[in-house]
Design goal:
mainly alpha
């Protein structure tokens, strides 16, 4: 069981690489009238699933923050740390791929007037703050309370990000997979996107499990070090 997180993460990574290859080599191109730069849309097979995985990570961050803040749960703290680290990894993937798409499609990598872009950027910035803060500050109840508070209140950006293009569609396109049968994806494109979503989900699960185990080992080592220094 100790090697299970690494296996899950590896399987997810292989699926992600496969998704990227299928997106560039197999999936059909979109109509020339749909985009300014039709070839640029191929990055969305990476971009959309990574954003989906980031939302899962921030959900884990919220649950872990709540478990620590209200229950003082050691498991909750490990979930908090794992959610922040996974949110940072997938958040940066999303921002990076989005900037590539934006540069090709819009002529600029970022639009500061677009609500969804900015709320997601804030979520990624929150993950950066939590990861760097937890690595640089001594571990303790007060520091955990502070970071878990940010994890709790920062989660409000998740639903705002989700509904942003439904309310304020500026630069970022609205949903491409509509619930009412009005989706704009060809079957082959939908298949590649589904493979990407599954692969990123598997990857993020493995990443979170590995991070939780590493955090547990780090805390046990710190306790052992304190005991040795106190003798």
């Amino acid at each position: 069981m100790k090697g299970l997180p690494a296996v899950i993460t590896s399987v997810g990574f292989i699926g992600i690489a496969t998704t990227l290859a299928l997106g560039f080599l197999w999936a059909p191109s979109v109509s020339i009238n749909a985009f300014e730069n039709p070839a640029a849309q191929r990055i969305f097979y990476w971009h959309v699933p990574s954003a989906w995985a980031a939302m899962i990570a921030f959900g884990v961050l919220f649950v872990g923050s709540a478990m620590w803040f209200f229950k003082r749960s050691a498991l909750g703290w490990r979930l908090h740390v794992a959610g922040a680290e996974a949110g940072l990894a997938t958040g940066l993937m999303t921002v990076w791929s989005g900037c590539i798409w934006g540069s090709a499609e819009w002529g600029v990598p970022w639009d500061w007037t677009d609500v969804r872009l900015n709320t997601f950027a804030l979520l990624t910035a929150l993950a950066i703050f939590l990861v760097l803060g937890e690595k640089s500050q001594p571990d303790g109840v007060e520091s955990r309370d502070t970071f878990s508070t940010f994890g709790l209140y920062g989660f409000i950006l998740v639903p705002v990000t989700y509904v942003a293009t439904r309310i304020w569609e500026i630069r970022h396109p609205g949903p491409v997979v509509a619930s009412g049968g009005d989706g704009s994806l060809a079957p082959e494109m939908g298949l590649v996107l589904a493979i990407g979503a599954i692969s990123f989900t598997v990857f993020i699960i493995g990443h979170i499990l590995a991070s939780m185990r590493l955090t547990k080992l780090e805390l046990e080592f710190e306790k052992l070090q304190t005991m040795v220094e106190g003798e």
